[in-house]
Amino acid sequence: MPAPQALGPPALGWAEPTAADTARFPPAEIFAAGLHQHHLANTAYPIAHAETWRPYRVPRAAVEATTRRAFAPVDALCLYVHVPFCATRCAFCAYTVVEREEAAGADLYAQQVVQELTLYAAALDTARRRLHGLDLGGGTPTVLEPAAIGQILSAVHRHFRWAPGADISIETTPRIAARAPDRLVALRALGIDRISMGIQVVQPALLRTLRREAGGIGEQRRAVEHIRRAGFKRLNVDLMYGFAGQSLLSWQATVAHAIALGPEAITLYRMRYKQTRLASQAGRVTLEQIHQQTTLAQQVLGAAGYAAPPGKTTYCRVAGETGTSAYLTQRVVAGMPYLGLGLGAQSLSPSTLAYNAGAASKRLAPYQRALAAGRLPIQDLYHLPARQLMAKMCAVSFYFGAIDRAAFAAKFGQPLERVFAEEVAFVVDRGLMQLTPRALALTPAGVAQLNGVIALFYAPAVQAHLLRLAADGGHGARQGAAGSRPRSLAFAKDGGAETRA
After folding, report:
1. What is the DSSP string of 375-430?
2. How far is CA 119 from CA 85, 359, 456, in A?
């Protein structure tokens, strides 16, 4: 990646912070609250935004004009296309996935995404923007026929310039890759050069709990064979840990199985219980279990030649590669703006964050109605102060276990260590992070207490929410599953999708 260039304040300007976002809390208290709410304090930011971001919400009548102004100075950006269809919603899933009865129109959905892109092309003059990466995630994007995906990619090529090093990444399932090899060949021919496949776990009892019984190990092996025959040389496999009832031995078997498949990269996702069918189980998972599973995976992967600095969630066996898509790499390291297309997708400009229609309801109708009316299908747009945008960048940076100091300074015009002077001193003095010429990076001790570390970089309004939860003895995952569900929170998996955050 080229060295970040100083950007200065965005054209729209950052919003004035509320009193809640000018507060200061002792780092030790925030650190403790993050550890207490360890199922909630993570890279998915913000928390409880219906409460913490409410003052920054843009009125419906001003959404499109605000979006145009917010993206006006942006030359470099990434693109994410959300495809919300799955054969079955897994029990661990909190993402924007539609119910099965809506999946019949999956290929029509591609036309709607193209329509949305055309609206953005007119509103933002996208032909002058450089695209640094495109992810197709979900859901399961490979549910779409290759011709439908081709329509989307053709529209992207019409409306954007491609930056050197940009790539296209897509997610699939073992079932589709094993049973539809011709589809993989067609996708590779479209120019898609990276593919990510979710295995998650191999423990039979846990698979039944997660509603992922079908296929098995044999199907996963056939899937990889077909992926390789189609010509994909960049394969990532997703694994998940932090489940109630997931033994250390079974987790070791899952990691060993993934290594045996021979992907270039293996990404580890800790279970996030909020708004899932498993939310009530969160209290059965301790930080000790998480630390044991994280340490075991690091040891087993390292012995097999998969490398990652402390805290990085993607391990790669190719020297000099991140193992992630260009879309995610640019988002995590540089905090690059991005457009999200499709149901419930998230978009980030230098001064705003938006959620598309359908983010809360997980229904296609609101998204379709907006397009039929000829308007950008944005459900909620937030014009944010710098401190909230800093928190968003820092939280996402922990996917790689470090906050890039030059990128932060270029984006916000201030050094990271000046903005977060007390917090940096706290983590450095305790050996949780270290300042290097490039970054503020996690140490192994910091990885073990990651949730407390991340919370230190949240904006004050969100930190206050964590403190209230800790004081009440509340459990973030269960609270999110009950009556406090945000009005419109879009979930997407960073890595094959926002971000999925």
Report:
1. S--EEEEEE--HHHHHHHHHHHHTTTTEEEHHHHHHHHSS-HHHHTHHHHHHHHHT
2. 23, 19, 39
Tally of domains within the chain = 2
For residue 433, being part of any structural domain is answered with: yes
Residues 28 and 137 placed together within one structural domain of the fold: no
What is the pairing mode between strands 346-348 and 352-356? antiparallel
Per DSSP, the three-state class of 1 is coil
Same domain, 178 and 306: yes
pTM: 0.91
Contacts of 415 (CB under 8 A, 6+ apart): 405, 408, 409
- 370 closest CA partner among 353, 356, 354, 352: 356
Peptide bond into 139 cis (omega under 30): yes
pLDDT at 379: 96
Mean pLDDT of 325-346: 97
The secondary element (H helix, E strand) that includes residue 15 is: none
pLDDT tens digits, 270-302 = 866 565 565 565 666 788 898 999 999 999 999
DSSP string, 287-354: HHHHHHHHHHHHHHHHHTT-B--TT-SEEESSTT--SS-HHHHIIIII---EEEESTT-EEE-SSEEE
Does a structural domain hold residue 60?
Answer: no
- Return d(Cα 349, Cα 64) in angstroms, integer: 13
C-alpha span between 342 and 368 (Å, rounded): 10
The residues, any chain, with a CB within 8 Å of residue 274's CB and separated by 6 or more, are 39, 40, 94, 476, 477, 480, 481
Same domain? For 115 and 88 the reply is: yes
